[in-house]
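Supplementary Note 3. Input sequence used for the single-chain structure prediction.
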Amino acid sequence: MTRGWRRGVLFAAGAALLAGPTALAFFSGGYFQGPRVWAGAAAWACVVVALVAGATPPRGRDAWLAIGGLGLVAGWTLLSILWAPLAGNAYGAGQIAVLYAGALLAATMILRGPVLPWVEPVLAAGTVIVVGYGLAGRLLPGLLHFARSISAEGRLEQPLTYWNAMGELAALGFVLCARLAGDDTRPRWLRSLAAAAIAPLGLGLYITFSRGALFACVAGLLALVVLAPRRRQLAALLLAVAAGVVASVAVAPFKGVSSLSGGLSTRESQGAIVLVLVVVIAVAAGVAQHLLIARVDDRGLALPRRAPLIVTGLIAVGLTLAIVVGSHESSGTSAVLSGGATRLTSLQSNRYDYWSVALRAFGTAPFHGIGAGGWSVDWLRWRSVTEGAQDAHSLELQTLAELGVVGAALLLSVLAGIGLAARRSLRLATASGAGRVAVTAGPIAALVTYLAHSPLDWDWQMPAVTLIATALAGAVIAAAEPAADDAQSASAMRGASRRKIHTANAHTAA
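The predicted structure, written as discrete structure tokens, is reproduced below.
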């Protein structure tokens, strides 16, 4: 295979890998078995294509800590069929883990070199498409008629069919677009488009009324300030926040859009008004980025030396306080919340009941867990509220309950490997000098967004969301080591140098 064909094949595989989450979003986010199986087959097909095209798996220790750890998570999940109360549930959980293992391996092999710069814009565009689709049914209700569930209570849920997952998807896109808008290495038209895209993403994030997604978005933006400590990036971030807030404030009075209240005629008129407002806000944000942000002095920010630790502490403390304070507002002691903006004024949730059952289940089988998919059985056994649930709404606690300390340790190895690769990619940027910002600043900030949300909901069971994080993690791992082409070039240069030395020695001897 010629070098041109090889690059073309890898670009095609990369396009499929990056567009996959967007396509899967229109099949209930890949939550059900059929789309999930096809997604897994596509992910592993990308691995095969990459190998045929000559791409090599990463060689770094941190890379294999993440990839190997995720592979072992998949194996341990499937092995738990032997002791899980429902073998079918355990097999489904194993399918999800195998999908992510293949996607991560493919991403580390493909999303490097000339493909790497496309990761952020393609994934960000995918979130805009998905959120925009969901908003379209509200802005044009006379033309588009989407399904709606009673449990959503008017919150934005389509096409993923779950409002909190839609909120997390919008938060990921928000952070990626904020980074793109302030990335001086990008074309100005792309930066302007990214700034304009913040308006629908901010609106979508708001009308999911997902408190966890809002927290995750703030966590990602705080991380972005530390990862890209430049004045122009900060100005773009503030513009993004302003555009998102203005879009949310603009839609708040129109309940026909924000919560699907009223008859069709009311929703049509309000949808038309909000559509005009969103377009105006988006255009204004794009123009502001093009005319104002681009002129901001791009000097570095004078952040404290321990700024990364400070931001990490703020995120951890914020999450802890929310959990502790919210534990006194459990659903059993207060009225049921509505699906509207009043949710944002309370920390009431059934999650504390879910988490309590997960910890109790862990106590019954701390080493190997109760088996993948077994939490739903224990929920029926020990629940304190009459509500059906399939997941513990926390990746970490559900892993601990269902896969025990073994599964938790394997999951921790995955996160540790990604973290070490992120640190190495940042060090490579620092070593290049001139205050260069790492090419992985956006992906790392978006990963922080995902990780901040993972203890609060079941993103793991929603492949359309987690595959975005998987692609970002693969890009970070790939960027932490020289690309295959670079390694081959370096090897060729070393070979040429040795030949020159041998020739010179021969001439000297003659």
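The first helix runs from residue 3 to 25. The CA atoms of residues 67 and 243 lie 38 Å apart.
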